[in-house]
């Protein structure tokens, strides 16, 4: 699994001009599921996301986790995180998980996040969405369960 994590002051996701999820201060997680991912990847990544220490402490150092900060979370599926642009002019998505499996693992990831006392909002899996956010910092990080990011 791959995630782009952005610390935000606020964020929202819209489908067909209807806002379906919105958060205040917290994290936006753009989540991609790879073809070899499983339930353990979803659990591990969710744990890493909520415990990621990227919120400022009293000395303005990134030292507080999302869990400790009481961060809101907005999770949006994004299969394009597995796009391979190394050849040609059109990305290949051969490493992205098949839709049914990816949906199940996306939902598992969200379920693991919801086990924590944090507000979790989501987009709609597979839908064309508009994500709006106010990146705070800016802070944007990449994470994956393959250990390459």
Give an account of the 3D structure.
The protein has 149 residues and is α/β, with parallel strands linked by helices. The protein has a single domain, classed as D-tyrosyl-tRNA(Tyr) deacylase (D-tyrosyl-trna(Tyr) Deacylase, Chain: A), CATH 3.50.80.10. The protein has three helices and eight strands, in the order βββαββαβαββ. The strands form two sheets. Strands 1, 2, 3, 6, 7 and 8 form a six-stranded mixed β-sheet that branches. Strands 4-5 form a two-stranded antiparallel ribbon. The mean pLDDT is 96.
Helix content: 10-25%
Number of domains: 1
Give a quick account of the main beta sheet: strands, pairing sense, barrel closure.
Answer: 6 strands, mixed
Mean pLDDT: 96
User: Approximately what portion of the residues adopt beta-strand conformation?
Assistant: 35-45%
Query: Which CATH C-level class is it?
Result: Alpha Beta
Question: Which shape, going by the Cα principal axes?
Answer: globular
Helix-strand makeup class: alpha/beta
Beta-strand segment tally:
8
Q: In whole angstroms, how far apart are the ends? A: 11 Å
**Rg over alpha carbons:** 15 Å
What would the CATH topology be? D-tyrosyl-trna(Tyr) Deacylase, Chain: A
Assigned CATH superfamily: D-tyrosyl-tRNA(Tyr) deacylase
| Helix-strand pattern | EEEHEEHEHEE
Poorly predicted parts: none
Query: DSSP helix count?
Result: 3
Supply the CATH architecture.
Answer: 3-Layer(bba) Sandwich
Labels describing this entry:
149 residues, alpha/beta, D-tyrosyl-trna(Tyr) Deacylase, Chain: A, six-stranded mixed β-sheet, two-stranded antiparallel ribbon, 8 strands, 40% strand, globular
